[in-house]
Design goal:
Layout lengths: L5 E5 L4 H12 L3 E6 L2 H11 L5 E5 L5 H14 L5 E4 L14 H22 L9 E6 L12 H21 L4 E8 L5 H6 L2 H10 L12 H7 L11 E4 L8
Length: about 250
């Protein structure tokens, strides 16, 4: 496996993001980990006992100026970006009747506009090198729709369209753009927000009868970030234990 790459991961202190950070660090890559909360990033660094290969920078990916600031850190500290993993997400449960325009815009900004802004900010550090990987974390919710998550599912459906368009535009730079689509993944926010009955129903609907956990996504992301995936772009890799099997 290629080592010594520079990897930017958003939502890095979250349940999925933190295991991705750990996996790339274990490969000998430099990881620039970003998230909204500086204290959570500090805890992540301490928990991994990370050295100089982990660079943390707090920022709001829905803010253009914050995304540009994160890119400046990558430029100053590493000089380039090889891999961008857009992992940050926010998925509150709000019935459509109760959904305000402000909350709609907030969720679209975090889950869709943030992917656009981070990609826009990192592209100058990737495109002149003839090699790059962009991996966007999607959601299996786009396959069936989810009550009380209209804003989130709409944003994740937008990520699919955005990724396919970027794959077309960036192929000439040697950059691939793909999506990893998890099923409902058991992380701390999911345990807090989702009813137990929903988690149990997800297990029953899968070919593999167990909870999906963050570690289940690491292999798919790591593969798409590898040289072995150099001819794969614009694709949606569904990692949900065999719940949906689209043709």
């Amino acid at each position: 496996m290629k080592q010594g790459r520079v990897v930017v991961i958003t939502g890095a202190a979250g349940g999925i993001g933190s295991v991705l950070v750990e996996r790339f660090l274990a490969n000998g890559d430099t990881v620039i980990a970003t998230g909204r909360n500086d204290s959570s990033l500090h805890e992540l660094s301490n928990s991994l006992k990370a050295g100089t290969n982990l660079i943390t920078v707090a920022g709001d990916i829905s803010s253009e100026s914050d995304c540009q600031r994160i890119a400046s850190v990558a430029r100053d500290r590493a000089g380039r970006v090889d891999i961008l993993v857009n992992c940050a997400g926010y998925f509150p449960v709000t019935r459509f009747d109760d959904l305000s325009t402000a909350e709609w815009r907030q969720i679209i900004d975090i889950n869709l506009t943030g992917v656009f802004l981070m990609t826009k900010a990192m592209l100058p550090l990737m495109k002149d090198r003839g090699w790059g990987r962009i991996i966007n974390i999607g959601s299996g919710s786009v396959y069936e729709g989810v009550p009380a998550q209209t804003h989130y599912v709409s944003a994740k459906a937008g990520v699919v369209g955005l990724s396919k368009c970027l794959a077309r535009e960036f192929g000439g730079y040697g950059i691939t753009v793909n999506i990893v689509t998890p099923g409902l993944t058991v992380t701390e926010p999911v345990l807090r927000l989702m009813p137990k009955e929903l988690l149990e129903s997800q297990v029953r609907s899968r070919a593999i009868k167990r909870d999906e956990v963050a570690a289940d996504l690491v292999g798919a992301v790591f593969f798409l970030a590898s040289p072995d995936a150099g001819f794969i772009s614009g694709q949606n890799l569904n990692v949900d234990g065999g719940k949906y099997m689209p043709s």
